[in-house]
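Now read this:
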Amino acid sequence: MAPNDTNVTVDSIESPEPKGSEEPDYSRRGQWLRAAVLGASDGLVSTSSLMMGIGAVKGELKAMVLTGFAGLVAGACSMAIGEFVSVCSQLDVEVAQRKREQRIEGGGEVDGDGLPSPVQAAVASSLAFAVGAGVPLLAAGFISSHKVRLGVVAAAASVALVVFGCVGAALGRAPVGRSAVRVLVGGWMAMAATYGLVRLFGSTRL
């Protein structure tokens, strides 16, 4: 065989894989990204809204902090339980599908690689919620002035919402600006609605 033929053969064997095969699986990453971003955003918005709502009728620092802390604990537990049940249902469906495929292919044990973990999803969602809920708590925990405290909670929540929206969009390869604006406006609406409604009902002395 001629030298040129040998070089061509070796090069063709040792040629690297196409760059496209090294791209990360954004669809699989998106599942964890969704849980993390939703958990953090939910913790931030719900806790900030609770603190703004109680701040509409009570000016005491202790009342706002205790309300926010109760929201953090309750929300983190709710996220963990909800995500655990959801992923367990998804796991049952995927295992059943793999069993059907194994029977068609002639038996064998079901491969557990790539299956979702309910415990891992529950812990991740709970921690993400706690991180988001901790932002308004830390922002308001050391401010004695009632009006200043409300402004700081709203400002800290707004900054965190923009950050969460940008991070989620960047990791998911989505438009950053649109995602940040969407998350920010949604958070503002939730806080304004909670503050306004609690203020309204508080003024009626129900």
